[in-house]
Design goal:
- By secondary structure, the chain is an alpha/beta fold.
- Helix 1 packs across helix 2.
- The chain has a 7-stranded parallel β-sheet, sandwiched between helices.
- It has 8 helices and 10 strands.
- Bound molecules: fructose -6-phosphate (F6R).
- Fructose -6-phosphate binds next to loops.
């Protein structure tokens, strides 16, 4: 794991966007694994800026998102499909047919999970997977549990995650209870992984993921077993790593 320390959220966003931009320049038809949430918004904005400056071409880029709420349609403004459209896809020249997100409206869980796994394998796998991290160490919606799940699956969200995500909804009751997510196996199959983290609330998760035991109780800890992981994290997110003299 390579930990890149930065000062704050804006610097994290610039550095992460530079790494993704390098991938796009090196391989114009790369497959990007993409994440939603608060953390990547600045990264996507930096990518949009680079696109507007004529530095990036997304026309051959393909993408596969980590996850989607079950039960939300792509035009629901809380869906991850909507998030990706408004925070990145609508502002660059990526082709809509090159973008992939689990279908939250598919009620048939087995069918949807198989379909999404086959989408990823038809793409030839992910070249660079962008990840945020939950306060509890989750990646995608792989919540702390007894075992690492390999392929795409449907999860019941933990109370922690529902509470953390409630800020995007009018009331906590509106937060969906289930989501489709890539499994840790899908994530670990990416050729390179870029995890971004900002803020004190992530400090414990970052510390345990990077320096604790590899355990499904801290899903991101499995990244220690991947040979090509970059973590771009700010001072606050790295505060526990620093006080424990790990960095
Ligand atoms: C979103 C995702 C989640 C988030 C995580 C952190 O696609 O996969 O794992 O990355 O919940 O969310 P934020 O960035 O909002 O703190």
């Amino acid at each position: 794991m390579r930990i890149i320390q930065v000062k704050d959220y804006p610097e994290m966003s610039r550095k992460a966007a530079n790494i993704i931009a390098a991938q796009i320049i090196l391989k114009p038809d790369a497959v990007l694994g993409l994440a939603t949430g608060s953390t990547p918004i600045g990264t996507y904005q930096n990518l949009i800026d680079k696109y507007n400056q004529g530095e990036l071409d997304f026309s051959e880029i393909r993408s596969a998102n980590l996850d989607e709420y079950k039960g939300l349609s792509a035009d629901n403004d809380q869906s991850y499909a909507y998030f990706m459209a408004t925070n990145l896809f609508d502002h660059v020249n990526i082709k809509k047919e090159h973008t992939n997100i689990p279908n939250g409206l598919n009620e048939n869980i087995e069918e949807e999970c198989k379909r999404y796994d086959s989408v990823i394998s038809t793409l030839g796998g992910v070249d660079l997977q962008l990840l945020g991290i939950g306060n509890n160490g989750h990646i995608g919606f792989n919540e702390p549990g007894d075992a690492f799940q390999t392929g795409t699956h449907c999860v019941k969200l933990t109370d922690d995650t529902i509470k953390a995500n409630a800020r995007f909804f009018e009331t906590i009751d509106e937060v969906p209870k289930y989501a489709y997510t890539m499994g840790t196996g899908n994530i670990m199959s990416a050729k390179a992984i870029l995890l971004i983290a900002s803020g004190e609330a992530k400090a414990e998760a970052v510390y345990k993921s990077c320096f604790g035991p590899v355990t499904p109780e801290v899903p991101a800890s499995i990244l220690q077993l991947h040979s090509n992981v970059f973590i771009v994290a700010d001072e606050a997110a790295l505060s526990l790593c620093r006080t424990n003299n790990c960095i």
